[in-house]
Every structure is written in C-alpha cells, then in structure tokens.
Amino acid sequence: DRFLARGKTLQELFAIVYSQKDSQAKLKFPATLPDDKFDCIVTSQTKWWEALESEINQRFNLVTQYQTTETGSVVVVKSGP
Question: What is the rounded CA–CA span in Å between residue 47 and residue 34?
C-alpha cells in the first residue's frame, strides 16, 4: 500500500509504474524529459502506481498513450497539449 523511491529519473519512475501495470509493455519517450532525479513517497494507496503516474503526468504536463501492436504493448509518454 506504499512506495518509496530516492534519486530516480522520470524514465525510471515510469518503468517502475509499468512494471506494476504491464511488465511486458515497452516504454517510448518522444518527449524530452528532465534529467533531474526525484525522491517520492506514496502512502495509503492500494494501487500506488496509479497515484504516482497521475502525479507525474500532472506535474510535468505529460500524457501516456497505451497502444497494442502485433509485437506487444507500447506505452508512449509525450508532452501534453
């Protein structure tokens, strides 16, 4: 029901989120993401990965698109409108 991370990039945090949601999905990042490292904690959330993804998307104005292809699932993370 909780998650703690220290010194992770946004790409690493998305990889953690999708390791919980769909570990077979491939991640693509056409958007330029900051190279900064972040610490985060999520508590009292049964699906903490959903809360983490939502917070990242909101803070950095990102949109995730889940696509199914012949070779598997792809998650595209790009800048929002």
Answer: 25
Between CA 67 and CA 77 the distance in angstroms is: 11
Continuous H helices in 7-74: 10-21, 48-60
Q: How far apart are CA 31 and CA 34, in angstroms?
A: 10
Among 81, 41, 48, CA closest to 65:
81
SS3 71: coil
| Type and span of the H or E element at 30 | none
**Residue 50, both tokens:** 């959903």
- In tens, the pLDDT along 6-60 reads 999 999 999 999 899 888 889 998 878 888 999 999 998 889 999 999 999 899 8
Six-digit token pair at 80? 């929002």
